[in-house]
Specification:
This protein has 292 residues and is of the alpha/beta class. The chain is built from 11 helices and 14 strands. The strands form 4 sheets. It has an 8-stranded mixed beta sheet with strand order 5-4-1-6-12-8-13-10, with helices on both faces. Helix 5 packs across helix 9 and helix 10 crosses helix 11. The N and C termini lie far apart (55 Å).
Length: 292
């Protein structure tokens, strides 16, 4: 049985869609209410049972690693001032049984290349990949379900979610051979079609930033030629994997937010502010007044 300890999170991107905010701040450190985006993703991974968090990073992203490290001066000051609530928040961002491991991606050569940069740490283990731009609203439920499905079937799992049929040409779309895939269910996937024409899309199930992959995909990535954007695409390697192994689509049961997109980020901010345990009620009251 696979232990599924390791997860790869590519954070080397320059965040050009959020300029000028990302000129000096990593996009992953932009806050969603009161926590940076990367903290949501790492917490999701750890809650789902992953203990080795592999950040594929860039020289400009030191703030991410610092966020998960201890700041002893800050913690000492908070303790001295008896600000125990804040001390608890900053002192336990990363659980004791989890590890942050950083590797550099020297060139921006795509998601597949980012995964290859983590290969020496992954070793011969199966692993997950999580895109830090994609935030889910149900914590780790879906990632846990994907991991359990992988352990049961040994089939790689690719998260998908339905999108309006008129928008399928914006996404990678899963071909599930006409299967009626319900939330939290997995089924065999025949292909991923990148941004198909609306009239030619095999389904309305778009790929959604969470993957659990057999280790053998690393060897496929090593021989995957550059594809779209002159980059090594993970999707191309998954297509090769389908030729030798079963790959399943797993249907998201919650809701996802593309926080690499300004509108998606704003939608997530409102949703998470409404649900916030301390701010939610007051924010909902203000929101009702504002919308009148």
């Amino acid at each position: 049985m696979s232990s599924l300890r390791k997860v790869v999170i590519p954070v080397a991107g320059l965040g050009t869609r959020f300029l000028p905010a990302t000129k000096a701040i990593p996009k992953e450190m932009i806050t969603l209410v009161d926590e940076p985006l990367i903290q949501y993703v790492v917490r999701e991974a750890v809650s789902a049972g992953f203990t080795d968090i592999i950040l594929v990073t860039h020289s400009s992203k030191g703030a991410i690693e610092n966020h998960f490290d201890h700041n002893f001066e800050l913690e000492k000051t908070l303790a001295f001032k008896n600000k125990t609530d804040l001390l608890e928040k900053v002192g336990h961002i990363l659980p004791n049984d989890a590890n942050i491991i950083s590797v550099r991606q020297p060139q921006a050569l795509g998601l597949g290349h980012a995964v290859l940069c983590a290969a020496p740490i992954i070793g011969d283990e199966d692993f997950a990949v999580m895109l830090p731009d994609v935030i889910l609203n149900n914590d780790s439920v879906d990632l846990k379900n994907m991991a359990n499905a992988f352990r049961k079937t040994k089939h790689s799992q690719i998260m998908v979610e339905p999108v309006p049929e008129s928008e399928v040409d914006k996404y990678g779309i899963a071909d599930c051979m006409g299967a009626d895939l319900l939330p939290s269910q997995s089924c065999k996937m025949a292909a991923i079609i990148e941004k198909p024409k609306v009239t030619e899309a095999p389904s309305n199930l778009s790929v959604t930033g969470r993957y659990i992959l057999e280790n053998k995909i690393l060897n496929l990535l090593r021989v995957t030629p550059k594809g779209a954007g002159n980059e090594i695409q993970l999707t191309d390697a998954i297509a090769q994997l389908m030729e030798i192994s079963e790959v399943d689509a797993y249907c998201l049961s919650g809701e996802s937010y593309d926080c690499g997109d300004k509108l998606g980020y704003l939608k997530a901010t409102v949703q998470f502010a409404v649900q916030h345990p301390e701010l939610g009620d007051e924010f909902k009251t203000w929101l009702k007044e504002y919308s009148l």
